[in-house]
Design a protein that fits this description.
Blueprint (H helix, E strand, L loop, with lengths): L2 H13 L2 H8 L3 H15 L4 E4 L2 E4 L1 H28 L3 E8 L1 H18 L2 E8 L2 H10 L2
Parallel strand pairs: 3-4
Antiparallel strand pairs: 1-2
Helix pairs in contact: 1-2, 1-3, 1-4
Length: 140
Amino acid sequence: MNLHALRLFYVIASTGSVTRASELLNISQPAITAQIKKFEKELSLSLLMPQGRGITLTDAGVKVATLAKRLFAVEQQIEQFALDYGQGSFGHIRMAATYLPAHFLIPAWLAKFKQQYEHVEMTITTTNSSGAESAFKYGR
């Protein structure tokens, strides 16, 4: 399926107008119309029908627009996740520490860290120094 054509269709469905979609996307009306015709042919569905000087969605068009809205919302979530992840806002930190730091120092540090990076998961293992070294060495 041509996702570019789906996006064009979605903008038309959202604005209710090929003209407004054309203005928003900086694409000529004939180019948009040609893409939509090709997209309808690809799907073997009629998505739009003329109504006076404008257009209206067919029943199939309403359903495709609803599904497209969900798809583009997920796309936006993926883009936001990638941005956040790249900035260190997501992930998993594993930490091994001896008893004293694990119970008296690290909790305060982690509380501060979690305020800024609430989606970063943390795992703390309390162990002796050789256990901490082993955990680091073998990624446990």
